[in-house]
Design brief:
55% of the residues lie in helices and 0% in strands. It is mostly helical.
């Protein structure tokens, strides 16, 4: 949870503070993180891994 919070803060800084995406909200961050997650052959979502491993670069690639 601490890593996910840190990733969300970095995304908010990039979007809101630096003006790249001034209306970035929590629901959009959640969606970007889910779509950018790394999945390794398991069924997702599941109880142990959720939607996969956090991948900040993958989340930013989803913005394009």
């Amino acid at each position: 949870a601490a890593c996910a919070a840190g990733v969300a803060v970095l995304m908010m800084e990039w979007g809101v503070v630096r003006g790249n995406r001034p209306y970035l909200r929590g629901t959009e961050i959640k969606s970007l993180l889910i779509n950018g997650a790394v999945r390794e052959g398991r069924m997702y979502p599941n109880r142990e891994w959720g939607y996969g491993a956090i991948n900040l670069l993958g989340a930013f690639r989803e913005i394009r």
